[in-house]
Write a structure and sequence with these properties.
257 residues, MetI-like fold, mainly alpha, 0% strand, 2 domains
Length: 257
């Protein structure tokens, strides 16, 4: 087996060594700052030590974590399906693309806060509000990346594929889908990080469950330790979701070596 093939066959670690080292360095720096805070004139509660944070982590409610995770995963799946389907329609119709692409650019320029205000004013249900905000923010990313990937397929390959007179379904499954899969995985990585940040903001408005709601409660109580604990939970969720996508990507794109 060639060295490149052996390297490609190795499993992708969930937490690489470099990631663990970076986290340990950050933890050591934070703990040192927590001990030096009184000497620097910083209130002790503003920089809690990891013992205090660990106590808050033990009190984290799994239900809120599961609710936030379900909202993120559900919205990402809906955004992915809608984005790819609309990208296919725009690819097959130049007129549709010319009319919709400017609107998509406008949607991508709208701030998250504006989407949240629109959702509050337009929809009565909290879950629908959160889902709407996530889809409105993440959907255009899937759409633009998928459409650009389709447009990036070389003309020679498309002409060669059409010379075999494939059906539209065969043309997409045999040529276009394999060509856009790497870009779709990149979109997933970008949108996971984006959705984790957006969902907490969306949950601050009206939600009575979820990590965003718990962060709001911690802010009202001026509990930095609770804020830090829930933030650590969000970071762990982000790492786990990204690791899952990276594992699926490594299996589906093993041909890249």
């Amino acid at each position: 087996m060639l060295p490149e093939e052996h390297h490609a066959s190795l499993p992708v670690p969930i937490f690489p060594r470099q990631t663990l080292v970076s986290l340990l360095v950050f933890a050591a720096g934070w703990e040192a700052l927590a001990h030096l805070a009184p000497l620097l004139g910083i209130p002790p509660f503003a920089v809690p030590g990891f013992i205090t944070i660990a106590k808050r982590l033990v009190a984290v409610t799994p239900f809120d974590v599961i609710v936030t995770l379900a909202r993120v995963v559900g919205a990402l799946i809906v955004s992915f399906v809608l984005g790819v389907l609309l990208a296919i329609a725009m690819y097959r119709s130049d007129a549709l693309e010319q009319y919709l692409r400017p609107m998509i650019r406008i949607l991508m320029a709208v701030p998250v806060v504006s989407w949240i205000l629109f959702a509050v004013l337009w929809f009565p249900g909290v879950e629908f509000r959160i889902g709407f905000v996530l889809v409105a923010v993440c959907g255009p990313v899937f759409l633009i990346d998928a459409l650009d990937a389709m447009r990036g397929v070389p003309r020679e390959l498309r002409q060669m594929m059409r010379s075999f007179r494939p059906t539209p379904r065969q043309f997409f499954l045999k040529l276009m889908l394999p060509a856009i899969v790497p870009s779709l995985f990149t979109s997933w990585k970008v949108n996971i990080s984006l959705a984790i940040r957006v969902v907490t903001i969306a949950e601050l408005v009206g939600a009575v469950t979820g990590i965003g709601h718990q962060l709001s409660v911690a802010q009202e109580l001026f509990s930095v330790a609770d804020v830090f604990a829930w933030t650590m939970v969000l970071v762990v969720l982000l790492f786990l979701l990204e690791a899952l996508v990276a594992r699926v990507e490594s299996r589906m794109l093993r041909w890249r070596g």
